[in-house]
UniProtKB/TrEMBL annotation, chain A:
SUPFAM superfamilies linked: Nucleotide-diphospho-sugar transferases
Protein name, as recorded: Glycosyl transferase
Cross-referenced InterPro entries: Nucleotide-diphossugar_trans (IPR029044)
Taxonomic superkingdom: Bacteria
UniProtKB/TrEMBL annotation, chain B:
Superkingdom classification of source: Bacteria
Protein name as catalogued: Glycosyl transferase
Length: 343, 541
C-alpha cells in the first residue's frame, strides 16, 4: 500500500498542539509519515530534539527553497507565514515522489481511523472539507457560520488531501504559486490566507472530492449542525457519524463562548475541549518563552509592528531597498520606518 | 437603602450570601448593601443563580464601565439575553476539576507523618490485641471509624458482628488515602494503617505487617480476607499479605465500580455515566481516567487471577452490572444487600392538597454531584417562588453552597444514629424525595431511608439498585422518570400533587444486614456440619 505522507505547519508556540496531533495521528496510523514544517528558529537555550517528538521528519522554512526568503517572510505575520508555506511544502513532498499527501492543521486531534481518506485518494485528486455541510436556520448561526464562510472561505484548509497524480500536482503548484504571492489575511480584498483561494478548486480541477461526512473536521463553526454524542460503547459521534477529527480552533474562554452557543445543552463538546487543554498542558514545551516566534522581532529585539509589515508588503520599492528587513542599525528598514513615523 | 439597591432585592439571596461569606455575616451589615458596595468587586456572588466573575468576563463592556454587574443584569442584561451563569456550569466545573485532579495526583506512595511501626512492635501490639478466634482481614480505602458512607457503615457492622462472635477484625487502609491505585516504587512502600477490633495500632509497611502477622496470629484459626475496596492500595501488596496469612476464603466486594475503572461511579470525567465501555474506546480516550485505565485494569485482573475470590455486590442490580463488564476470574458471585426495607402494613394518606400546605420535596444525604445534588438544586431554583412547593435538604452540606430557600436540616448518621435520616424525614413530614443519582447506585441508603420515612420517591429510570428497589419493594410509593424534563413537568403541571393524593405512604425500617461475616459464619457452620456428617458416615461404614 502507498505510504501516506502527512504534514502540519506551525511555529514553536504551537509545538504542544503539533505533539498532540502527532500522537493522535500515530495512534490511528502508525504507518503514516508525519512531517513538521517549521516556520521558526529555536530561542537560545531551547533544544528541539526530533528523537523525543512524535514527529517523523522536520522541514525548516529555510529548506523550502523560497526565493528572497527574508523579504518574503517579513511580509507575513505568524498565521500568514505558517499557512503560506503549505503549498511549497506540499510540492516538496510531491517532488520527493509522495503519492498521497494529507495536510492537517496543528490544532486538530485525530479520534478515529482515516483510512477512507487514504482510499479516496485512489480516485480523487484533491479532498476538501467544507466548513458547513447543512444550512443553518437561526440568524445568529447564519451570521456566525454561513456568512463567516462567505468571508473566510467555503472549505476549511485545516485539512486537505492531495494525490500525486498529474491533476493533484497541478492543484499543488497552483496553490503554491498563489500562496507565495497572496497569502494574506485581507478579507476586504477577497483574501484569507491559504483558505479563500480554495473556493476555486472544484471549478479549476478535476476529481475533487467534497467530503460530506460530518465526522471530519468538526469545529465550532459547524457544531450547530453536528451535535457531539457518546454512546454506551464509548463511540464519539458528530451528527451520528463517527468523530474522525476535531479542530480545536480556540482553546481559551473565548473559544468556549462559541461552544456554549452551539453545544445544544450537551456536555460532550466541553469534555473534548477540556481533554484537549489537558493534553496541551501535559505537552507544553519546556523552556520556550511565552509567545515565542523568531520572526516577531527585528534584530534589535524590538517587536515588528503590523503596520511595518503592511508597508513593506504594499511597497515594492521598499522591498527592493531593504532585501533584509529584519536587520537593525544604520540603513535598516527598522530605522527607516522609525524616521518615517517621526516625520 | 436607595431605590436601585432595593430593586435588586428580588435577585439577591441573603441566606446564601451570609452562609457563603461568614466574614460578611460577622460585620453585621446588610448583605445586599455589602454586595453593592464592595462584594461584587471582590468577586462574591449574590445568589446561586448569578456568577459575578462570569458576568464580568463575558461582558467586558460592563467590566470596563465599572458597573455593579447584578444591577446591569437586572435592568439591562437579562432583557438583552445575557447569561447570569455559565451554561452547564456544574458539569463543566466537574470535568475541569477531573482533569485538574489528574494533574495534581502524585501516584508515588507518601510516607505518613506519624511514621511506621517496626515489625517487632506491631507483632507485640497484635499479640496483645488478638482474641483467640478467627481473623477477618478487612481492606478498604479509608479509616471507617472516621468517615461517613455506605462502605464505612458496613465495615462498622462487620466489626460489631465479629466482636459478638469473638472473631478478630483486622482492618487495613492506606496510611495516606488517595484516589486510584498506589504505584509501586522500589524502596518506597505503601504504608498501611492497621486497626484491630476497632483500635488503631499504627501504620506499618506491608513487609512488617506480614512478618508481624505470621508471628502473632492466633494459631489454629482461619484467616478470611474481605476486600471492601482497593482504592489507595497497591493490590500486589495486599495480595502478598493475603498470600502470607490467608489460606481460607477471600471475598472482594463491589460497593462501587472501582474494579472496572478508577472512576468508581463510572462517570466519564467524573461527570457523565459512561456504561463502562472498553478501555480502548474513544470515550476512554477523552476521559481523565482513561489514559491509565488499561494498566489499572491489568493490575486489578492480576489480583483476581491470583486468588479467584468470591465476589459480593450490595444488590442484584450492582452484581448484574459488574458481571456484564468484568471478565475477572472469580469462584462465585453473590448479591448481599446491605439492608432490608421493612414497611408497615398501615397506609397513611399524604396530607398535601387537603391541608393546603406546600408539598415538601427533599434531597437526602450529602450535597454531592454524583448523588444528583445539582439536579435537585436546579429544581428548587426553578420553583423557588412557587407556593405549591417547599424544598428541604436533610444530610450534610460539606461547604457546598445552596440556595437560601432550601430548608436545611443537618443529619449525620455517624453521630445521630443509623436511623437518624429516617427519623428526620418523618419529623419534617417530607412528602417527596428526589433521588436523582447520576450513576447506577449499587445500593443507595438514601432511597431506602426515603421510603422508610414514608416519602414518595422520584428517581430516574435505568440501571442500578434504585429502580429495582422501587419496583420490587414500594411500587406505589414512587415514580421512575425518563428525564429531568419529565421531573420539571411533573411539578410545573401540578401532576405531582394529584399523584400524591392517589397514593398512600407506608413508613418502615431499614434492617441492617451483617455483610460478609454472616456469610462466612454460615459457610463455616455448613462446613462443620458437612464434616461431622462425613465423619459419622465414615464411622457408620
Amino acid at each position: 500500500m502507498t505510504k501516506v505522507r502527512c504534514f502540519t505547519s506551525a511555529s514553536f508556540s504551537y509545538l504542544d498542539r503539533v505533539r498532540v496531533l502527532g500522537e493522535t495521528l500515530h495512534r490511528h496510523h502508525p504507518d503514516w509519515e508525519f512531517t513538521f514544517c517549521l516556520s521558526d528558529i529555536e530561542p537560545e537555550g531551547f533544544v528541539f530534539n526530533l528523537d523525543e517528538e512524535p514527529i517523523d521528519a522536520l522541514v525548516r522554512i529555510g529548506e523550502l527553497g523560497i526565493p528572497n526568503l527574508d523579504s518574503w517572510m517579513f511580509e507575513h505575520d505568524i498565521v500568514e507565514l505558517c499557512t503560506a508555506v503549505k503549498g511549497k511544502m506540499l510540492c516538496r513532498l510531491l517532488e520527493q515522489g509522495a503519492e498521497k499527501i494529507v495536510y492537517i492543521d496543528p490544532d486538530i486531534a485525530i479520534f478515529a481511523d482515516l483510512t477512507d481518506i487514504e482510499r479516496a485518494l485512489d480516485t480523487h485528486n484533491v479532498i476538501l472539507t467544507p466548513h458547513q455541510l447543512r444550512p443553518d436556520t437561526s440568524e445568529i448561526a447564519i451570521r456566525d457560520n454561513e456568512i463567516g464562510s462567505l468571508k473566510f472561505g467555503i472549505y476549511n484548509l485545516g485539512f486537505v488531501a492531495v494525490s500525486g497524480r498529474p491533476e493533484g500536482r497541478r492543484f499543488a503548484e497552483w496553490w503554491r504559486d498563489r500562496l507565495l504571492s497572496f497569502c494574506f489575511d485581507d478579507v476586504p480584498n477577497g483574501l484569507f490566507t491559504d483558505q479563500k483561494w480554495c473556493d476555486h478548486v472544484p471549478a479549476f480541477f478535476d476529481d475533487v472530492l467534497i467530503l460530506r461526512d460530518p465526522g471530519y473536521n468538526v469545529a465550532s463553526w459547524n457544531l450547530s449542525q453536528r451535535p457531539i454524542a457518546i454512546d454506551s460503547n464509548g463511540v464519539i459521534r458528530a451528527a451520528d457519524s463517527v468523530l474522525r477529527f476535531f479542530h480545536f480552533t480556540k482553546v481559551t474562554w473565548a473559544g468556549e463562548v462559541m461552544l456554549e452557543r452551539y453545544c445544544g445543552n450537551r456536555i460532550e463538546v466541553f469534555e473534548l475541549m477540556y481533554w484537549y487543554r489537558d493534553q496541551l498542558a501535559q505537552r507544553a514545551p519546556k523552556g520556550l518563552p511565552e509567545r515565542w516566534w523568531a520572526f516577531a522581532r527585528y534584530e534589535s529585539g524590538n517587536p515588528i509592528p503590523p503596520q511595518h509589515r503592511l508597508a513593506y508588503r504594499q511597497d515594492g520599492a521598499l522591498r527592493r531597498q531593504f532585501p533584509h528587513p529584519f536587520s537593525s542599525g544604520a540603513n535598516s528598514f527598522e530605522n527607516f520606518m522609525k524616521e518615517r513615523e517621526v516625520r | 437603602m436607595n431605590d436601585h439597591i432595593a430593586a435588586l432585592e428580588h435577585f439577591f439571596d441573603r441566606t446564601f450570601y451570609l452562609r457563603s461569606y461568614p466574614d460578611v455575616a460577622e460585620l453585621r451589615i446588610d448583605p445586599l448593601e455589602h454586595y453593592c458596595a464592595t462584594g461584587w468587586r471582590e468577586g462574591r456572588n449574590p445568589s446561586i443563580s448569578f456568577d459575578t466573575g462570569f458576568y464580568l468576563q463575558r461582558n467586558p463592556d460592563v467590566a470596563k464601565a465599572g458597573i455593579n454587574p447584578l444591577h446591569h443584569y437586572v435592568f439591562a442584561g437579562r432583557h438583552e439575553g445575557r447569561k447570569a451563569i455559565p451554561p452547564l456550569r456544574d458539569m463543566r466545573a466537574r470535568v475541569q476539576n477531573s482533569f485538574r485532579a489528574k494533574l495534581d495526583i502524585n501516584p508515588a506512595p507518601t510516607i505518613p507523618d506519624e511514621g511506621v511501626l517496626s515489625a517487632e512492635r506491631l507483632s507485640s501490639l497484635l499479640q496483645a490485641g488478638f482474641l483467640d478466634g478467627p481473623i477477618i482481614l478487612s481492606v478498604s480505602h479509608d479509616d471507617y471509624r472516621k468517615n461517613v458512607g455506605g462502605v464505612q457503615k458496613l465495615i462498622s457492622v462487620e466489626q460489631a458482628t465479629c466482636s459478638e462472635l469473638s472473631w478478630n477484625y483486622l482492618h487495613l487502609s492506606p496510611a495516606c488515602p488517595r484516589l486510584g491505585l498506589a504505584d509501586r516504587v522500589p524502596g518506597l512502600p505503601v504504608a498501611l494503617s492497621v486497626c484491630l477490633n476497632g483500635t488503631k495500632l499504627g501504620n506499618a509497611t506491608p513487609a512488617s505487617l506480614i512478618q508481624a502477622l505470621v508471628h502473632a496470629r492466633p494459631k489454629g484459626h482461619p484467616v478470611h480476607a474481605v476486600i471492601h475496596h482497593l482504592m489507595g492500595h497497591a493490590p500486589e501488596d495486599i495480595g502478598n499479605i493475603i498470600q502470607a496469612v490467608c489460606h481460607d476464603r477471600i471475598i472482594v466486594w463491589t460497593h462501587d465500580f472501582f474494579t472496572l475503572c478508577s472512576s468508581v461511579q463510572l462517570l466519564r470525567n467524573d461527570t457523565v455515566y459512561c456504561h463502562a465501555p472498553p478501555s480502548h474506546s474513544m470515550a476512554c480516550g477523552i476521559c481523565s481516567h482513561g489514559e491509565d485505565r488499561p494498566a489499572f485494569l491489568a493490575r486489578i485482573e492480576a489480583f483476581f487471577t491470583r486468588f479467584t475470590p468470591c465476589v459480593m455486590a450490595p444488590s442484584e442490580a450492582a452484581l448484574a452490572l459488574w458481571l456484564k463488564h468484568a471478565s475477572f476470574s472469580h469462584a462465585v458471585a453473590l448479591a448481599r444487600p446491605l439492608g432490608r426495607l421493612l414497611l408497615s402494613d398501615s397506609h397513611i394518606p399524604f396530607e398535601t392538597g387537603s391541608t393546603g400546605r406546600p408539598i415538601r420535596i427533599a434531597f437526602l444525604g450529602q450535597r454531592a454531584y454524583p448523588k444528583g445534588w445539582p439536579i435537585f438544586q436546579n429544581l428548587a431554583e426553578h420553583f423557588q417562588n412557587d407556593p405549591r412547593y417547599e424544598f428541604h435538604h436533610i444530610g450534610l452540606a460539606h461547604s457546598v453552597p445552596a440556595a437560601g430557600h432550601i430548608i436545611y436540616t443537618k443529619v449525620n448518621i455517624a453521630l445521630d444514629g443509623p436511623d437518624a435520616m429516617i427519623r428526620a424525614v418523618v419529623a419534617r413530614n417530607i412528602d417527596v424525595v428526589v433521588n436523582w443519582s447520576l450513576w447506577p447506585e449499587t445500593f443507595c441508603y438514601a432511597a431506602y431511608e426515603a421510603l422508610a420515612g414514608g416519602a414518595f420517591l422520584l428517581a430516574p429510570d435505568g440501571e442500578g439498585n434504585v429502580p429495582v428497589l422501587l419496583r420490587r419493594s414500594a411500587p406505589g410509593q414512587g415514580l421512575l422518570l425518563e428525564s429531568e424534563d419529565e421531573l420539571v413537568a411533573l411539578l410545573a403541571t401540578g401532576k405531582l400533587s394529584n399523584i400524591l393524593k392517589l397514593s398512600s405512604r407506608q413508613r418502615g425500617y431499614l434492617l441492617a444486614e451483617e455483610g460478609s461475616i454472616a456469610w462466612l459464619r454460615d459457610q463455616r457452620e455448613q462446613e462443620m456440619t458437612n464434616r461431622s456428617e462425613l465423619l459419622s458416615e465414615v464411622q457408620d461404614d
